[in-house]
Amino acid sequence: MALLDVRNSNGYTSCSMFIKLCASHFCFILVLWVNLPWRIHAWIDYEEVELYDLVEAVNVNFYELLEVNQTATTAEIKRSFRVLSLKYHPDKNKEADAEVKFRNLVAVADVLKNETKRKKYDQILVNGLPDWRSGVYYYRRVRKLGLLEMSVIVSIILTFGHYLCILAAFWEKNYEVSEQLRRRSRRQRTLSNQQIEEIKSEMLQSLGVTYPRILYDNLIFLSRCYEKLKEYSRQSNEEESVQEEIVRPKRTKPKPVEPPNFEDLYARIENRVLNNEVNEINNTEAESRNERSLKSEWSETDIHQLIKLTKKFPGGIPERWERIACVMARNPDDVAKKAREVKSGSIKCSTGNNDFVPLNNDCENDISENRAESRNDNIWSQEQQK
User: Fold this and answer.
1) Looking at the domain assignment, is residue 306 inside a domain?
2) How confident is the model at residue 156, as a pLDDT?
3) Other CB atoms within 10 A of residue 6 CB
4) 3-state SS assignment for residue 92
5) Is residue 169 part of a domain?
6) Which of 72, 76, 207, 268 is 20 to 30 A from 29 in CA distance terms?
């Protein structure tokens, strides 16, 4: 690196001179900028600035607003102001902008009553307001800085100026070293590695190189510390959760116990008892019918009764043969078979007078009522079941 510095000594010289020139110009601009506000305060007349602001706010000729000529005297201006003040006073004028008009009227009257301000206003009528080529224009347009903003800007400028000075000193030192090496190279063409390392160490220990490196190392160290803290907090939380799981056994939630519904229980028992009793009654009736059908034969009276019942219960009635069998106390299959035989004409019966008395609907009703009573006798009530 030192050899490169020797070879490019002219370049380093030009850079160092350029940086010194920039630093000097920067300091000059800084001093000028700091002293400029005080200079501006010295040559700016605040009455003129206020007059310029009033002219822009009113945006009307003052003489036309007061309804007087430009050559009017002070007495005429006062007289016109008294008349117009009574007209535009907010207490008497109910317009929305009456207060603004009255305020502008008072300000214009104050300007025209004062001879000095009136002369300045006459000059404004002739020359107009200051344009961008004058300093007053920028003083009125640019926003005024506060103390805090001014302090921040000055501190930033001073910081950059300080770093520029440090950089200029660095390049100056580098230039001196390169000059020394160039002079030594005339006597001694080569340098030892130890001398080169010493020069490098001196350059690396300078403030311009050390300060950014320390700042970078601190940022890296803080980021690593933050990661370590996050890892430690995560591990501690995991250990605490594991310990809580070990110490605290899992509690099983008890299953909700539903209270027994005794009404459904009684209804089931009652239905079961009724079904059993009905089945027993049906079985006994079926057995008795089978026994009767097997033991008894069909008499002529039974055939006449069958014919009457077939007329009483014609075809299309649901459970026709069961009803006829219920009346005749016989098996439905036996009744249907015998009816087919009678219909086919294989069995002949006399039509003479017999002792047979035909059954009517009361028989069937009596049989159903007797069965219901027998069932009700065997059914237990809820009080008996308790």
Assistant:
1) yes
2) 92
3) 19
4) coil
5) no
6) 207
Q: How far apart are CA 229 and CA 201, in angstroms?
A: 36
**CATH assignment of the domain containing 322:** 1.10.10.60
- Give the pLDDT mean for 55-79: 86
Tokens 């001694």 found at: 188
Helical spans, DSSP H, in the chain? 2-7, 9-43, 46-58, 62-66, 74-88, 98-113, 115-127, 135-141, 147-187, 193-204, 207-247, 262-295, 300-312, 320-328, 332-344, 361-378, 382-385
Distance, in Å, from the CA atom of 302 to the CA atom of 329, rounded to the nearest integer, reads 11
Residue of 347, 338, 349 lying closest to 293 (CA atoms): 338
More confident: 329 or 384:
329
Spatial separation of the C-alpha atoms in residues 69 and 74, rounded to whole Å: 11
Q: Which of 93, 126, 142 is the last residue of a domain?
A: 142
DSSP letter at 359 equals -
| Tens digits of residue pLDDT in 180-238 | 888 877 666 555 666 677 777 777 777 667 778 888 888 898 888 989 898 888 888 88
Global pTM reads 0.31
The answer to whether the Cα torsion of 32, 33, 38, 44 is positive or negative is positive
Contacts of 367 (CB under 8 A, 6+ apart): 326, 327
Residue 378's nearest CA partner among 278, 286, 285, 288 is: 278
Give the chain's domain count: 3
Say how far apart CA 130 and CA 359 lie, in whole Å: 137
